[in-house]
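Possible race condition, two jobs.
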Amino acid sequence: MVEVTAVVERADLLGESPLWHPAERALYWLDIKAPALHRLDPATGVIADWKLPQETGSIGLRRDGGLIAGLRDGFAVLTPGDGGTVGIDWIANPESDRPDNRLNDGKCDRQGRFWAGSFHDPAGMPAPGPRMREPVGALYRLDPDRTCHRMADGILVSNSLCWSPDGTVMYFADSPRRTIRAWDYDPASGAIANERVFARLPDSGGTPDGSTVDAEGFLWNAQFGGGKLVRYAPDGSIDAQIAMPVRRPTCCAFGGADLRTLYVTSGRVMADAAELAAEPLAGALFAIRCDVPGLAETAWPG
């Protein structure tokens, strides 16, 4: 039996992008729809919160301080300050011609390039709905020199970005299509090639949301609406499944000094009153101790 512990019992509308900061020994994560940035010090239990100016889909470490982030209006460096204020250094808005899109899931590759994908999600909407299922999203790579490159088009909802331990395989999910895909990845150039299906989810149950890869090269995926985490072997077969106490886990990331704590965010979006009454922990942050550690995230050097 695997113990799933609620470490922060708060009602995030759409908790996302857990990120372990090794220098601070703290976990950052987002509530996209609040919008807000949170930080947990596991040693003390102290939580800090910062109000964000717009929906922010993902964060990554930055070598020179602060966080690299994908927001509704593009890429920026966030610098959390005192009094709940956040400094913003805007870098690029690759979708200025698509104002109803926003950046979603994102992560740094093993060399520190920050990737994030977009999808159609008009401002002010509580959650993706049927009218947003238009393939107008794209996948972007932000290099350390602050140049932004569009790498793929025709995306419905971008999720699951992560890399194999050696950085030669990149994983990605277009969630409504219910598949996790893989590309060959060139660590030297950041180029992708040879797209293929890594894992296909059944028609019933959840859709693939955020993912991470452990030190053995197994991929962990949070399945939104399915109420579980699934660990996939490098060949795409299912190795293990962990039932969550909520139906809408959103993303997972390893943290802790030994990188053996798997943190899992969750959300309350798209849940009706009956579901919320039955799931008092919806929107909480969870932790699971794992035998196999994760891998340290690389910081964006820009």
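Job #2 (started ~2 s after job #1):
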Amino acid sequence: MNRIRRRFADLTDGQVHMRYAGPTDRAPMVMIHQSPGSSKQLEPLMTALVARGWRCIAPDTPGNGDSDPLPIDQPEIPDLAQAAFVALSDVVDGPFDIYGSHTGASIAMEIAIAHPDRVRSLTIEGMGLYSGGLQSEVLDRYAREIRPDAEATHLMKVWHFCRDQHLFWPYYNRTAEGRLPDGLPDDDTLHDFVVEVLKAMRSYHLSYRAAFRRHKAERLPLLKMPTLVMSSPSDMLHEYSQQVADLVPGATCKVLPAWSDPAFHKTTAHMMEDFLEKAHA
């Protein structure tokens, strides 16, 4: 039961792919990944949580990883949240906890707001509350469309896009001022990241742009369940964490270790479990 398995759930149009692991006799932790990429990037945290006895279910958001894009030209975060909830209903029929990272945090938040009778708690890891200028800039420049071409330049575009997200913020700000602190992950991790983005190269930008468009500050006060806001100083969105927590009634705000810390995922899992035990006591 500790091995991560995979399955698909049917929507009216298309399918949602998901990873799952852990015992089936407890309320699950639903996990929504960041953009770009897929639930593949959540496997280390899933493994750490499952080792502590948790059941984890992690869908690929529509248009990412192995999930089909929604039949909408410009999906918004509520559209992605509704699709994820419908897919999860294929495997979860009771209450659940939910975690989201970056774009996944916005999707998880909307699921929690729409279904407070089902969501026991929310964990937000990294959420941006951009100023108007930065919001317009990232909408214009960050999530560009990439198409295949006969010279295979699209392969290098995706590779450099994924690589530079670990080095700079925004990734196109390749200056000393834009440099991130931790550097590159190991080669296997970077390769897996690139492969997941390549799978959804034609549609990955849709969920990204939806997250950049979303005005999160207006939504956060609507959360009614126990909420944990956490981030690492390595995270380009770390500067917003306390502001995010201040907008959620009764939220807890925690600081994670550096992404490069070998114990990062175990520490994150321990912090989440500690919060959840108190929330559900």
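Strands lie at 5-10, 15-21, 29-32, 56-59, 96-101, 119-125, 227-231, 252-255.
Logs attached separately.
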